[in-house]
Amino acid sequence: MQIATPYLMFLGDVPDRLAAKTAYGIVDWRPEWCVGQLRLPGCAADLGIPDLTIEEAVAKGVRTLIVGVVNAGGVLPDHWITSIVAALEAGLDVASGLHTRLGSIPAIAEAAARGGRQLYDVRHSDQRFDTGKGTKRPGRRLLTVGTDCSVGKKYTVLALEKGMRARGFDADFRATGQTGVFISGRGVAIDAVVADFISGAVEWISPAAAPEHWDLIEGQGSLFHPSFAGVSLGLLHGAQPDAFVVCHEPTRTRMRGVQHPLPSIEEVIDLTVRCGSLTNPEIRPVGIAVNTQALEEAEARALLEHLAAAHDLPATDPVRFGVESIVERIATLYPAGVAA
User: Per CATH, is 140-337 categorized as 2.40.50.100?
Assistant: First the structure.
């Protein structure tokens, strides 16, 4: 899948920043590809890049409209169709990470056909997957897990890829969600894979590798989330992680979109080890990544110090303070992976 750059980021009229996390992720990690944003009245998200009309975007050389939003069920609202059709008629391709296939909407399919434009459904793959086998395979793997969904699992693993490479590790980011696929150009949106094949799909994106190679696998959902625990468990079994990092947002009391209380970090560590031991008995935690965006710096640092002491693990905000402490822990535990 080769999606033409640069991009116009379509946000629709999403109600908050989290609903546009796909667009934010692309802008944060591939800013050179993002020329502007297109927002409808009532949109509560702002990527901090220029607001452009479709005509202005075309004039600036944009080639693809990215539907950079997420919502429950991954549906495409009817009142967004007009904007997508207009983009196609102006000569842009359209790419989406929603569950709804762009081509399943007649007006969009017809506009694409008339103009010879491409439609990309990043959440869907034509690749056929086997069921997971759970057989230990060569290479090292790290997985990010969460106390909830939307707590920074993707950002953490991308930061770890950068930090581990700088430390001399042979390490690669492995995308398991639509935003990660947009950023890396490869991967599988795991939540769109039929349940029986989730673990097999993760084995496919992280195959046998050299003994000292690290695959850094993007986590999804939470083992404690009633909506997404099935995806999280299949991902854990397929990843066979040697190491995992717990990701957490400290201001939440309930899990996103449901009434269930947020689990503790200790509960997440314990359940991840118990479930992950099925396919890798050597699984262990190597750090805690906390999204401290809502906290003042002094409060954030105090919280991280407390968590590090309480769990005997390095704790950091990967975006705010970097991941050097976690990388150092990995280097200490797995010294063979560090380049001389």
Answer: no
| Cα(329)–Cα(241) distance, integer angstroms | 16
pLDDT at 71: 78
* Pair 112, 84: CB distance under 8 Å: no
Q: Which CATH superfamily is domain 7-121 in?
A: NAD(P)-binding Rossmann-like Domain (3.40.50.720)
| Confidence band of 1 (pLDDT split at 50, 70, 90) | low
Task: Give the C-alpha separation, 21 to 68, whole Å.
Answer: 7
Burial of 165 (0-12, 13-18, 19+ CB in 10 A): middle
Q: Which of 286, 289, 291 is nearest to 331 (CA)?
A: 286
- Selection from 70, 98, 102, 105 nearest residue 256 by Cα: 70
Structure-block tokens of residue 294: 């809502």
Q: Which pTM value belongs to this model?
A: 0.82
pLDDT in tens, 232-282: 999 999 999 999 999 999 999 999 999 999 999 999 999 999 999 999 999
Q: How would you class 195 by CB atoms within 10 Å of its CB: exposed for 0-12, middle for 13-18, buried for 19 or more?
A: exposed
Share of the chain above pLDDT 90, in %: 84
